[in-house]
Write a structure and sequence with these properties.
Helix content is 22%, strand content 29%. With 310 residues, the protein is of the alpha/beta class. The strands form 5 sheets. Strands 1, 2, 5, 6, 7, 8 and 19 form a 7-stranded mixed sheet that branches. A 5-stranded parallel sheet has the order 10-17-11-12-13, with helices on one face. Helix 1 (11-21) runs parallel beside helix 2 (55-67). The longest helix is centred in the last third of the chain and has 20 residues, at 286-305. The radius of gyration is 22 Å and the shape is elongated. The relative contact order is 0.18. Bound molecules: flavin-adenine dinucleotide. Flavin-adenine dinucleotide is lined by residues 7-13, 30-34, 36-38, 40-41, 44, 46, 78-79, 110-113, 134, 136, 243, 246, 276-277, 284-287, 289.
């Protein structure tokens, strides 16, 4: 069995692995996709001390750092179930989709998050055929075209500002009466000549033809009138969903599905810690996830020291 088993190989899991391994304890990392969301990121300019890098480079550096230590890296492994220890100080089980079961004295959950779907007709059908989630990755594909951004929170407005510099025109659709993004972002957005904002706007359908997006149908919630805006791309920016479905009923989750953690990263289950985007820790960022992973590893080490001998 492991002393520390980390589930998830993004910045949080990688940092946890390095911190755990440096304590000389048996450390394993099981990850569905090592690197996590960073793999889908283009430029990273806010990881302190690294002026600029890109996602794939950063992900490779995470993996290299982890592999510099004696860590069992199990990539392409999805965890399906967590079984708490039968008695205090007993072994915790993590069951993998492959059928294997891993055992460990402590576990760190760092399964991150993913973009939320808008769940309207056309979204699934036209995914990667005009429906996108990552402006940094897919923005350039829409150069000279008209696109929509669904969502007027920080991520939506940031995406719209970003895309406005790349595409011909951006239309922002916000369900609520007002954009929810920070005032400075909204001000910036409204200063741009090629952006239109629709508030009170409920997206009804992403339309398409010949296997490509050709428009977005929305309902004006004030007038109940429906309108069709012709465009070639739709960026869905309505938040992140934590990858914690598999933990439901085992570990305490917030109403958003985030693993509830204390200041040391401990969860409601003894010996189980959590870090990064899958937790209640606010602000989902690389540097925060990494710091959080380090914290959870130290929390797990602290718990190991206190476990009864033999
Ligand atoms: P993740 O990176 O989500 O990693 C989760 C890990 O868990 C992955 O390895 C995943 O495969 C694995 N996993 C999930 N479920 C399971 C399971 N059941 N079993 C096993 N493994 C599982 N942040 C910044 O600071 N700067 C930026 O410029 C920036 N740009 C971004 C751009 C994009 C397009 C995206 C998507 C995010 C960006 N972020 C940025 C946010 C940043 O990527 C995240 O905050 C950070 O990656 C979170 O790290 P994490 O380790 O908590 O989770």
């Amino acid at each position: 069995p492991y002393d520390v088993l980390i589930v998830g190989g993004g910045p949080a899991g990688a940092a946890a692995a390095v911190y755990a391994a440096r304590k000389g304890i048996r450390t394993g990392v099981a990850a569905e996709r090592f690197g996590g969301q960073v793999n889908d990121t283009l430029a990273i300019e806010n990881y302190i001390s690294v002026l600029e890098t890109d996602g794939p480079k950063f992900a490779a550096a995470l993996e290299a750092h982890v592999k510099a230590y004696d860590v069992d890296v199990m990539n392409l492994q999805r965890a399906d179930k967590l079984v708490p220890a039968a008695e205090p100080g007993g072994l915790i089980e993590v069951q993998l989709a492959s059928g294997a079961t891993l055992k460990s004295k402590t576990v760190i959950l760092s399964t991150g998050a993913r973009w939320r779907n808008v769940n309207v007709p056309g979204e699934q059908e036209y995914k990667n055929k005009g429906v996108a989630y990552c402006p940094h990755c897919d923005g350039p594909l829409f150069k000279g075209k008209d696109v929509a951004v669904i969502g007027g929170g920080n991520s939506g407005v940031e995406a719209a500002i970003d895309l406005a510099g790349v595409v011909r025109h951006v239309t922002v659709f916000e369900f609520m009466p007002e954009l929810k993004a920070d005032a400075v972002l909204v001000k910036k957005l409204k200063s741009l000549p090629n952006v239109t904002v629709h508030t009170h706007a409920q997206t009804m359908e992403i339309t398409g033809a010949d296997g490509k997006v050709n428009g977005l149908r929305y309902k004006d919630r004030k007038t109940e009138a429906e309108h069709l805006v012709p465009l070639q791309g739709v960026f869905v920016q309505i938040g992140l969903v934590p990858n914690t479905e598999w933990l439901k009923g085992t570990v305490e989750l917030s109403r958003f599905g985030e693993v509830v953690v204390d200041a040391k990263g401990a969860t409601s289950v003894p010996g189980v810690f959590a870090a990064g985007d899958c937790t209640t820790v606010p602000f989902k960022q690389i540097v925060i996830a990494a710091g959080d992973g380090a914290k959870a590893a130290l929390g797990a080490f602290d718990a190991l020291m206190r476990m009864p001998v033999g």
